[in-house]
Amino acid sequence: DVKVTQSSRYLVKRTGEKVFLECVQDMDHENMFWYRQDPGLGLRLIYFSYDVKMKEKGDIPEGYSVSREKKERFSLILESASTNQTSMYLCAISDRDLYEQYFGPGTRLTVT
Amino acid sequence: GESVGLHLPTLSVQEGDNSIINCAYSNSASDYFIWYKQESGKGPQFIIDIRSNMDKRQGQRVTVLLNKTVKHLSLQIAATQPGDSAVYFCAVWVYSGNTPLVFGKGTRLSVIA
């Protein structure tokens, strides 16, 4: 079974705090993705990575950065959290091809 | 680029009836299509996929139909059960280098017992 774990299911942070969301996979897959999911807007791609230390911007990278120092771990960083970053954050992985993505359980982040 | 739209944001069906969820895409070069199911509080789960060289694929109680002429994709669920209540997303992939999946906004399926 594919296993994608995210560091927290629920997280509450204050405006201006630095926030780290971690995603870990046990499948040795090449590609990892970060999405945010909001009602009425569906899944929107923030960043993805197709190799260690490689990253590509998605559709909405502003206000976010990422880090991939090891193949199995992909971190999403909110440098200075804002209330409009309150959302569900989903990590996904895929093998060499960029389809067949497998998702983690999600982190519901609330910024107050 | 690619854009993906769904015809209905919500759908209610009677338990035991068949459900049909539709999706439209814009890029005729789209190569691969996936349906995901997302239950409340969970991440999306892969249900079924289809490549552009096929027009129909069947799984267990689910069928995906692809009409490339009108760029339309549908998911049919036979004998809908309460456990099928979820949000369903279609996702489309175009083979063009490092371009990931493009997701539709989702249809919330509610099953009435």
In one word, what is the shape of chain B?
Answer: globular
Major sheet attributes of chain B: 6 strands, mixed
Please identify, by name, the CATH architecture of chain A.
Sandwich
Helix content of chain A: under 10%
Q: Overall pLDDT of chain B, averaged?
A: 90
Q: Which range does the strand content of chain B fall in?
A: over 45%
Q: Can you tell me the CATH superfamily of chain B?
A: Immunoglobulins
- Find the count of extended strands of chain B (DSSP E, 2+ residues): 11
Helix percent band of chain B:
under 10%
CATH class of chain B: Mainly Beta
Q: What proportion strand of chain A?
A: over 45%
Low-confidence stretches of chain A: none
Class inferred from helices and paired strands of chain B:
mainly beta
Structure, described:
Chain A has no helices and 11 strands. Chain A has one domain (4-99): Immunoglobulins (Immunoglobulin-like). In chain A, a hairpin with a 6-residue loop joins strand 5 (42-49) and strand 6. In chain A, strands 2, 4, 5, 6, 9, 10 and 11 form a 7-stranded mixed β-sheet that branches. A 4-stranded antiparallel β-sheet of chain A has the order 1-3-8-7, with no helix packed on it. By secondary structure, chain A is mainly β. In chain B, strands 2, 4, 5, 9, 10 and 11 form a 6-stranded mixed β-sheet that branches. Chain B has a 5-stranded antiparallel β-sheet with strand order 1-3-8-7-6, with no helix packed on it. The radius of gyration of chain B is 14 Å and the shape is globular. Chain B has a single domain, classed as Immunoglobulins (Immunoglobulin-like, Sandwich). The mean pLDDT of chain B is 90. Chain B has 113 residues and is an all-beta fold. Chain B has no helices and 11 strands. At the A-B interface, strand 5, strand 9 and strand 10 of A face strand 4, strand 5 and strand 9 of B.
How would you describe this structure in keywords?
heterodimer, A: 112 residues, mainly beta, Immunoglobulin-like, 4-stranded antiparallel β-sheet, B: Immunoglobulin-like, 6-stranded mixed β-sheet, 5-stranded antiparallel β-sheet, 56% strand
